[in-house]
Write a structure and sequence with these properties.
The longest helix has 25 residues. The chain is built from ten helices and no strands. It has 240 residues and is an all-alpha fold. This is Probable membrane transporter protein. Its main location: membrane. Keywords: Cell membrane, Membrane, Transmembrane, Transmembrane helix.
Protein backbone atom coordinates (compact mmCIF):
# COMPACT_ATOMS: atom_id res chain seq x y z
CA UNK A 1 0.00 0.00 0.00
CA UNK A 2 3.05 2.26 0.07
CA UNK A 3 2.35 3.42 -3.49
CA UNK A 4 -0.82 5.08 -2.18
CA UNK A 5 1.00 7.18 0.40
CA UNK A 6 2.20 9.96 -1.91
CA UNK A 7 -1.23 10.82 -3.41
CA UNK A 8 -2.83 10.54 0.02
CA UNK A 9 -0.29 12.95 1.51
CA UNK A 10 -0.92 15.35 -1.37
CA UNK A 11 -4.68 15.34 -0.73
CA UNK A 12 -4.27 15.68 3.04
CA UNK A 13 -1.87 18.60 2.56
CA UNK A 14 -4.30 20.28 0.17
CA UNK A 15 -7.36 19.93 2.42
CA UNK A 16 -5.68 20.99 5.63
CA UNK A 17 -3.66 23.86 4.12
CA UNK A 18 -6.88 25.30 2.68
CA UNK A 19 -7.94 26.08 6.25
CA UNK A 20 -4.49 27.01 7.56
CA UNK A 21 -3.61 23.65 9.10
CA UNK A 22 -0.52 21.51 8.62
CA UNK A 23 -2.38 18.20 8.50
CA UNK A 24 -0.49 16.21 11.15
CA UNK A 25 -3.60 14.37 12.33
CA UNK A 26 -4.40 13.36 8.76
CA UNK A 27 -0.82 12.27 8.08
CA UNK A 28 -0.82 10.18 11.26
CA UNK A 29 -3.95 8.29 10.25
CA UNK A 30 -2.75 7.82 6.66
CA UNK A 31 0.66 6.53 7.69
CA UNK A 32 -0.85 4.20 10.28
CA UNK A 33 -3.24 2.66 7.75
CA UNK A 34 -0.58 2.38 5.04
CA UNK A 35 1.96 0.57 7.18
CA UNK A 36 4.57 3.18 8.03
CA UNK A 37 6.77 2.10 10.94
CA UNK A 38 5.21 3.35 14.21
CA UNK A 39 8.43 5.01 15.40
CA UNK A 40 8.48 7.15 12.24
CA UNK A 41 4.89 8.38 12.37
CA UNK A 42 5.05 11.16 14.97
CA UNK A 43 8.31 12.80 13.77
CA UNK A 44 7.25 12.45 10.14
CA UNK A 45 3.92 14.14 10.86
CA UNK A 46 5.73 17.06 12.49
CA UNK A 47 8.18 17.26 9.60
CA UNK A 48 5.38 17.39 7.03
CA UNK A 49 3.63 19.95 9.23
CA UNK A 50 6.60 22.29 8.92
CA UNK A 51 6.40 22.48 5.16
CA UNK A 52 2.63 22.52 4.69
CA UNK A 53 1.90 25.01 7.48
CA UNK A 54 4.65 27.33 6.24
CA UNK A 55 3.22 27.52 2.72
CA UNK A 56 -0.32 27.90 4.11
CA UNK A 57 0.83 30.76 6.34
CA UNK A 58 2.58 32.47 3.44
CA UNK A 59 -0.59 32.38 1.34
CA UNK A 60 -2.82 33.71 4.12
CA UNK A 61 -0.26 36.32 5.18
CA UNK A 62 0.12 37.57 1.63
CA UNK A 63 -3.67 37.84 1.39
CA UNK A 64 -3.67 40.10 4.48
CA UNK A 65 -5.37 37.79 6.99
CA UNK A 66 -2.64 37.51 9.66
CA UNK A 67 -2.72 39.52 12.94
CA UNK A 68 0.19 39.37 15.38
CA UNK A 69 -2.12 40.32 18.24
CA UNK A 70 -3.99 37.05 17.77
CA UNK A 71 -0.85 34.93 17.51
CA UNK A 72 1.62 35.96 20.20
CA UNK A 73 -0.48 35.41 23.39
CA UNK A 74 -0.71 31.70 22.57
CA UNK A 75 2.72 31.12 21.02
CA UNK A 76 4.84 32.43 23.90
CA UNK A 77 3.87 29.61 26.25
CA UNK A 78 3.03 27.01 23.61
CA UNK A 79 6.47 26.70 22.00
CA UNK A 80 8.49 25.65 25.09
CA UNK A 81 5.78 23.28 26.29
CA UNK A 82 5.53 21.61 22.87
CA UNK A 83 9.20 20.71 23.34
CA UNK A 84 8.44 19.24 26.77
CA UNK A 85 5.40 17.35 25.49
CA UNK A 86 7.35 15.75 22.65
CA UNK A 87 9.67 14.13 25.19
CA UNK A 88 6.90 12.65 27.34
CA UNK A 89 6.04 8.94 26.85
CA UNK A 90 2.47 8.09 25.85
CA UNK A 91 0.77 4.70 25.39
CA UNK A 92 -0.72 3.89 21.98
CA UNK A 93 -4.26 3.64 23.37
CA UNK A 94 -4.12 6.96 25.21
CA UNK A 95 -2.45 8.55 22.21
CA UNK A 96 -5.30 7.58 19.86
CA UNK A 97 -7.97 8.59 22.38
CA UNK A 98 -6.47 12.03 22.94
CA UNK A 99 -5.99 12.62 19.23
CA UNK A 100 -9.56 11.52 18.45
CA UNK A 101 -10.83 13.81 21.21
CA UNK A 102 -9.03 16.76 19.65
CA UNK A 103 -10.55 15.93 16.27
CA UNK A 104 -14.05 15.65 17.75
CA UNK A 105 -13.67 19.08 19.34
CA UNK A 106 -12.96 20.59 15.97
CA UNK A 107 -15.77 18.72 14.18
CA UNK A 108 -18.36 19.77 16.76
CA UNK A 109 -17.37 23.40 16.42
CA UNK A 110 -17.43 23.38 12.63
CA UNK A 111 -20.86 21.74 12.42
CA UNK A 112 -22.34 23.61 15.37
CA UNK A 113 -22.28 27.02 13.75
CA UNK A 114 -23.23 27.53 10.12
CA UNK A 115 -22.83 31.31 10.31
CA UNK A 116 -19.37 32.43 9.27
CA UNK A 117 -17.54 34.53 11.82
CA UNK A 118 -16.24 37.33 9.64
CA UNK A 119 -16.91 40.33 11.87
CA UNK A 120 -16.48 39.64 15.59
CA UNK A 121 -12.94 40.18 16.87
CA UNK A 122 -12.64 40.40 20.65
CA UNK A 123 -9.30 41.13 22.35
CA UNK A 124 -7.48 38.14 23.84
CA UNK A 125 -6.70 38.50 27.58
CA UNK A 126 -2.93 37.89 27.84
CA UNK A 127 -3.24 35.58 30.86
CA UNK A 128 -5.86 33.47 29.09
CA UNK A 129 -3.72 33.31 25.96
CA UNK A 130 -0.69 32.13 27.94
CA UNK A 131 -2.70 29.48 29.78
CA UNK A 132 -4.44 28.17 26.68
CA UNK A 133 -1.27 28.29 24.60
CA UNK A 134 0.68 26.34 27.20
CA UNK A 135 -1.95 23.63 27.46
CA UNK A 136 -2.28 23.33 23.69
CA UNK A 137 1.50 23.27 23.25
CA UNK A 138 1.98 20.49 25.79
CA UNK A 139 -0.76 18.35 24.26
CA UNK A 140 0.51 19.06 20.75
CA UNK A 141 4.00 17.89 21.62
CA UNK A 142 2.66 14.71 23.19
CA UNK A 143 0.56 13.89 20.13
CA UNK A 144 2.98 14.96 17.41
CA UNK A 145 0.71 17.64 15.98
CA UNK A 146 0.99 21.40 15.65
CA UNK A 147 -2.06 22.24 17.73
CA UNK A 148 -4.08 24.05 15.10
CA UNK A 149 -7.02 21.66 15.41
CA UNK A 150 -7.25 22.61 19.10
CA UNK A 151 -6.57 26.35 18.81
CA UNK A 152 -8.81 27.01 15.78
CA UNK A 153 -12.16 26.19 17.42
CA UNK A 154 -11.20 28.23 20.49
CA UNK A 155 -10.44 31.29 18.35
CA UNK A 156 -13.85 30.97 16.72
CA UNK A 157 -15.87 30.04 19.83
CA UNK A 158 -14.63 33.10 21.74
CA UNK A 159 -14.77 35.38 18.68
CA UNK A 160 -11.08 36.16 18.87
CA UNK A 161 -10.63 35.95 15.09
CA UNK A 162 -12.49 35.64 11.80
CA UNK A 163 -12.37 32.34 9.93
CA UNK A 164 -9.49 33.42 7.67
CA UNK A 165 -7.63 35.14 10.50
CA UNK A 166 -8.00 31.86 12.39
CA UNK A 167 -6.50 29.99 9.45
CA UNK A 168 -3.55 32.41 9.25
CA UNK A 169 -2.91 32.30 13.00
CA UNK A 170 -3.21 28.52 13.13
CA UNK A 171 -0.75 28.07 10.27
CA UNK A 172 2.06 29.95 12.04
CA UNK A 173 1.10 28.45 15.41
CA UNK A 174 1.39 24.96 13.91
CA UNK A 175 4.74 25.81 12.35
CA UNK A 176 6.42 27.04 15.54
CA UNK A 177 5.01 24.20 17.63
CA UNK A 178 6.09 21.64 15.05
CA UNK A 179 9.63 23.04 15.13
CA UNK A 180 9.65 22.84 18.92
CA UNK A 181 8.20 19.33 19.02
CA UNK A 182 10.59 18.10 16.34
CA UNK A 183 13.58 19.49 18.24
CA UNK A 184 12.32 17.61 21.29
CA UNK A 185 12.25 14.38 19.29
CA UNK A 186 15.70 15.07 17.83
CA UNK A 187 17.10 15.23 21.35
CA UNK A 188 15.74 11.69 21.81
CA UNK A 189 17.72 10.40 18.80
CA UNK A 190 15.31 10.78 15.87
CA UNK A 191 16.83 11.14 12.38
CA UNK A 192 14.85 11.47 9.10
CA UNK A 193 14.67 8.46 6.76
CA UNK A 194 15.59 8.95 3.06
CA UNK A 195 12.06 8.20 1.79
CA UNK A 196 10.65 11.04 3.86
CA UNK A 197 11.92 13.60 1.36
CA UNK A 198 9.47 12.35 -1.28
CA UNK A 199 6.70 12.42 1.32
CA UNK A 200 7.57 16.03 2.08
CA UNK A 201 7.41 16.91 -1.62
CA UNK A 202 3.93 15.37 -1.98
CA UNK A 203 2.50 17.10 1.09
CA UNK A 204 4.20 20.39 0.19
CA UNK A 205 2.70 20.34 -3.31
CA UNK A 206 -0.74 19.75 -1.83
CA UNK A 207 -0.13 22.57 0.63
CA UNK A 208 0.72 24.99 -2.18
CA UNK A 209 -2.58 24.27 -3.91
CA UNK A 210 -4.65 24.21 -0.72
CA UNK A 211 -3.14 27.38 0.73
CA UNK A 212 -3.90 29.32 -2.44
CA UNK A 213 -7.47 28.01 -2.71
CA UNK A 214 -8.21 28.68 0.95
CA UNK A 215 -6.83 32.21 1.03
CA UNK A 216 -8.21 33.35 -2.32
CA UNK A 217 -10.89 31.07 -3.81
CA UNK A 218 -12.87 29.02 -1.31
CA UNK A 219 -15.90 30.59 0.38
CA UNK A 220 -15.94 30.78 4.19
CA UNK A 221 -18.71 28.13 4.64
CA UNK A 222 -16.85 25.82 2.28
CA UNK A 223 -13.71 26.17 4.40
CA UNK A 224 -15.66 24.82 7.35
CA UNK A 225 -17.11 21.87 5.48
CA UNK A 226 -13.81 20.89 3.87
CA UNK A 227 -12.06 20.80 7.23
CA UNK A 228 -14.95 18.99 8.95
CA UNK A 229 -14.88 16.27 6.30
CA UNK A 230 -11.15 15.74 6.61
CA UNK A 231 -11.06 15.52 10.40
CA UNK A 232 -14.18 13.32 10.54
CA UNK A 233 -12.48 10.71 8.39
CA UNK A 234 -9.34 10.88 10.53
CA UNK A 235 -11.33 10.57 13.77
CA UNK A 236 -13.27 7.51 12.60
CA UNK A 237 -10.08 5.76 11.56
CA UNK A 238 -8.53 6.34 14.97
CA UNK A 239 -11.49 4.92 16.89
CA UNK A 240 -12.16 1.75 14.86
Amino acid sequence: MSHLLLPVLFVVGLIYASVGHGGASGYIVAMTLLGVAPEQIKPTALLLNLFVSSVAFFQYYRAGHFRWATFWPFAISSVPLAFVGARLPLSDTLYKQLLAGCLLLLIVRLIWSTKANEEAQKPIPPAVGLLVGGAVGLLSGMLGIGGGIILSPLLLIFNWATIRQTAATSALFIFVNSVSGLVGLLTKGYSPAPEQYTWIAAAFAGGLVGGYLGSHRFSVPLLRYVLALGVAVACVKLLI
